[in-house]
Amino acid sequence: MTTKRALITGVTGQDGAYLSQLLLAKGYEVHGLLRRSASADVVNSRLTWLGIADKVILHDGNLTDLSGLIRTLTEVRPAEIYNLAAQSFVKSSWQQPLLTGTVTGLGAGNVLEATRIAAPEARFYQASSSEMYGLIQEPVQSEKTPFYPRSPYAVAKLYAHWMTVNYRESFGLHASSGILFNHESPLRGIEFVTRKITDGVARIKLGLQKEIALGNMDAKRDWGHARDYVKAMWLMLQQDKPDDYVVATGRTVSVRDFCTLAFGHVGLKMEDHVVIDPRYMRPAEVEVLLGNPAKAQKALGWVAETTLEQLVAEMVEADLARLKQHTHL
Ligand code: NAP
Ligand code: G4F
């Protein structure tokens, strides 16, 4: 049997790392698109953390460069393409709206176009987002819930989402979108609220810091574990027919609740350490997200395996270990 080949854009990000790990375990040859950086020592830090940096074959490239994408797909000839690359931080999308549109929106269009031209038989996955629901139109969001984006990021993701649907319907590509709700892990970027909290809790516990400054404590999210969510991505591409799926836990809690769990894990109280800083508020907020994963459960047999309590514990423990190692405490 020939080895299956996959190409992952965004391979250096949180999901790219966990998806690489999953695909390698399944025997795939894993290729990744690498955005060139002057800081070569940090680009593959997540793959290194998972112990797989030497197993992923990296190709220089950028989502904004269609010719490079066509060349890479022509060279690699992947059976599966996972488009995970994006300017993915919602808050930054107000500071860089056009960059976000160019990378997160048009960039996905470039990958679809490169796929159509150079690898039309490949199966394609688009990393869509629950942010597209924004100002929610139903209390629990499913594949049928209308979208109402509330940030330049969400607008860009909506463009990419509908391009994926249109390339499927117009050109017959096996193109699926996963509408993933928030998912976290020890490999989450430090700018996102969960990791900011678990890193802050670890620092406070170790006496390195006294406070964490946060924005809207009332925002509610449906938080799952990235390791579980990449399995849903893979499952979507194993189906005979392409389709769109919500991937979520079906439970939503506030930023305040997340803090309570994280501080509680190390025997501290969040009231003693959290301060509110208006700098972390957003021009428009997505107040609450709650997904209904019934379709993914039924059609893919996918379930969220990690509870929120397990996720928080894993993240806090990982940050404690990382800080102890770096500070020699
Ligand atoms: P992430 O950690 O921020 O990773 C983003 C990746 O995109 C990084 O590898 C980054 O490369 C790459 N990238 C950024 N701009 C690029 C460009 N111009 N060309 C090529 N690569 C570029 O994001 P994540 O949490 O893993 O999320 C993966 C995808 O799922 C993203 O599209 C995100 O928007 C979407 N999503 C995430 C969630 C979530 O809760 N995590 C939920 C729904 C959807 P560098 O390492 O060079 O920065
Ligand atoms: O962790 P966040 O920055 O994630 P957000 O905006 O929900 O976006 C993430 O999930 C999306 C899926 O729904 C992805 F598409 C997207 O790429 C990204 O992965 O913020 C979560 C909530 C927000 O309501 C924010 O206002 O936490 C609130 N928050 C409160 N204080 C904060 C802070 N967020 C951040 N980043 N930093 C704070 O200090």
Task: Report what the structure shows.
One of its GO terms (molecular function) is NADP+ binding. By secondary structure, this protein is an alpha/beta fold. It folds into two domains: 5-183 and 223-247, 3-Layer(aba) Sandwich (Rossmann fold), CATH 3.40.50; 189-221 and 251-288 and 306-327, UDP-galactose 4-epimerase, domain 1. The protein is 43% helix and 16% strand. The chain contains twelve helices and 13 strands. The strands form four sheets. The chain has a seven-stranded parallel beta sheet, sandwiched between helices. α7 (152-171) links the parallel β5 (123-129) and β6 (174-180). Bound molecules: NADP nicotinamide-adenine-dinucleotide phosphate and ligand G4F. Ligand G4F binds next to α8.
Task: Please describe the structure with a list of short key phrases separated by commas or semicolons.
12 helices, globular, seven-stranded parallel β-sheet, Rossmann fold, alpha/beta, UDP-galactose 4-epimerase, domain 1, binds NADP nicotinamide-adenine-dinucleotide phosphate, two-stranded parallel ribbon, binds ligand G4F
Query: What is the radius of gyration computed over CA atoms, rounded to a whole number of angstroms?
Result: 19 Å
Low-confidence stretches: none
- The portion of residues forming beta strands comes to 15-25%
Major sheet characteristics: 7 strands, parallel
Q: How many helices in DSSP terms?
A: 12
Q: What ligands can be seen in this structure?
A: NADP nicotinamide-adenine-dinucleotide phosphate, ligand G4F
End-to-end span in angstroms? 50 Å
CATH superfamily of the largest domain: NAD(P)-binding Rossmann-like Domain
CATH topology assignment of the largest domain: Rossmann fold
Shape: globular
Whole-number mean pLDDT: 97
Q: Please state the structural category.
A: alpha/beta
What's the helix-strand series? EHEHHEHEHHEHEEHEEEHEEHEHH
**Do you know the CATH architecture of the largest domain?**
3-Layer(aba) Sandwich
CATH class of the largest domain: Alpha Beta
Pfam families: GDP_Man_Dehyd (PF16363)
Function: Catalyzes the conversion of GDP-D-mannose to GDP-4-dehydro-6-deoxy-D-mannose.
Enzyme class: lyase
Organism: Bosea caraganae
